[in-house]
Amino acid sequence: GSAPPGVDPEAFSWFQAVDADHSGFISVKELKQALVNSNWSTFNEETCLLMINMFDKTRSGRIDVYGFSALLRFIQQWKNLFQQYDRDQSGSISFNELQQAFSQMGYNLSPQFSQLLLARYAQRSSNPSIQLDRFIQICMQLQSTTDAFREKDTGLVGNVRLSYEDFLTMVVTRMM
Description:
Helix content: 55-70%
Strand order of the largest sheet: 1-2
Number of strands: 2
Distance between the termini: 36 Å
CATH topology: Recoverin, domain 1
Number of domains: 1
């Protein structure tokens, strides 16, 4: 068949190829098999789940062709940003590039925080760096938690007082 109205024909044909079980929906597993980083590793499951949840309007744990088409546009925007911050064109983001990216995105984060992210999300090596999938995941989580923080920081002073349960509620509703 041909692409439904409002869906890019290329996205439609890729949707059909990715929909391995021909259910008319893309699952996390199918998405994970379809997306690769510059080093040819598949996207990690956490990032795929975050993205599926973002475009899953029915809360079924999968996306239809419209959600998939929107997801591809979303990934392309992140890929463009990623390539902009990957100054040495290595296909991954190093510590210095990550620091610059955060600064240019308006986040005032310490080198220690960037180091913590590298330790958590980079592949183990002598020169750890972040692949596209983890970059998307980090940025989505940073955006989400920043939004949650700003809801509490009404005076924009950079500090809030939270109860433990308020903190857990913020984490559970934004991250899981």
